Amino acid sequence: MGKLGDMMNKAKEMAKGHPDQADKGVSGAERMVDERTGNKYDARTDKAADSVRRSYRDGGTTPER
User: How many independent structural domains does the chain possess?
Assistant: First the structure.
């Protein structure tokens, strides 16, 4: 696997170990994109953020914040 793939795996493992902090980062990134685009892609950023959260949460069974 390349360097980018290795970095992604490390980031995912860190997020699994600290899901609350990862949630804050995901929410911040989502908010920044929404602000910069004038909420034009709000539905897409919501869907993307949910997908990211599921990737490090326990199979999507953890309640969202």
Answer: 1
